[in-house]
Amino acid sequence: MRSSRRLVAGVTAALTVAAALAACVPIERPSPERTPVTDGVPSELLPYYGQELMWEECAGGGEGDFFCTTVSAPIDWADPSAGDLDLAIIMRLADGDSQGALLVNPGGPGASGVDLVRGSASFAVGETLLGSYDVVGFDPRGVGESTAVRCLDAADMDAYLFDAPAAPRGTPEWESELTDRNERFAAACEANSGDILPHISTANAARDMDLLRGVLGDERLHYLGYSYGAFLGATYAELFPGRVGRVVLDGGIDPSVPGSEVGARQAVGFENSLRAYAAFCLDQEDCPFTGTVDDAMGQLAEALAVIDAAPPAATDGREMTGDAMVMGIITALYSEGNWPYLTEAITAALEGDADVMFSLVDMYYNRSDGRYLDNSTEAFSAYNCIDYPADPAELEAESEALVAADAPTLAPYWSGVDLCASWPYPPTGTRGEIHAEGAPPILLVGTTGDPATPYEWAAALAEQLSSGILLTRVGEGHLGFNKGNDCIDGAVEAYFVDGTVPDGDITCE
To answer: Is 450 tagged catalytic?
Structure first.
């Protein structure tokens, strides 16, 4: 039974940005004008790298000039004659003299960079960088406003995510029900996504980023990648080391870790973060737990089992199973600032009120009023099923043993039947170290208490990269840049703005 959870997310898991485009006014070019860079591009790719973009003025959060456009990319980079797909981008022009485009990816896989920059460019990159770069949010292939993976309507997605199997948890009948559910989901993705599914991979998304670099007129790629976006950036550096500009990867992922261990390590990370939350909670008057941290974890485990056996219903009719409650808890753990709200959600759940916890669950899935505001869940599945090769049975067993031993509170709700076993296309990704030989300095940001991308992953990636430099934020929560740590923010901003490279690895309390 393979792990079904790989919860690498990003800044949008901690903050869902709501925004809408205003009416668009066509203009010939954005300002400043940009000439595509086609040096060294193979002849069969010149129509893509040399395309002239038709920009439209569009709305964005906060002050600044925002422009939107669509870039054509090959569906299959190995066979450009196989057809095209669309990549949606939004650009917020620099307040001062621009040093070029700064691409930003919020993670996932499946999170929308367009929504991130549209909703708040300052949240995406911080106020300082807005003065020096044209900030570009993009939706990777399969995501959001780009040619997207499509699977289920909202009602069927609710059933897929939240309906509890009739059979008892862990039984062969339970596994059979989940397998049937996965097969229906995968078949719907195949039926509704055109011909893009076999080409939704991180390697292809990295090639798309190089296309964006070229059509935006930059010799080198400047990039800020969060969480999964750090893996995307590292993949780019491996493929195009000579085209790397100033790159910062926040919440790095160790690319050599097998897929099953990714899920297991995340389970342990969230268990540790849950213990840190429990210590915080026990110091508050309104905490629903008592005694020591171990006592609190035991009380939560008992509460999860009781709720899973008799799930309370939310006002919209969804039943809050143990799986749903764990998802809500995990969502809150992405940011230490969510901890008081998590206390409220757990307290309400213990009293039979599922609505508060479901508000956290819906934040993760970007669901509002019964609608899914994006396709992040579908895209997440598509990327993971192509990126991660199946692990040998012994590695799967070792990973499940790790979760059972080091994440006992979450373990009963962590493993399930792997969707990717039902995916219509085999994986094409590989797992292995990334070195990016010849690339200029790449900064890695790791947070010691990060539950979603454990600190040791950022440290491992910094060690693997030939030019990696590790910036350590001592603290809790997912990610480290633009989180209020002046030491981290100063180092990242000095690198992007002035090209200042730290003398070596640094630690920021």
So the answer is: yes
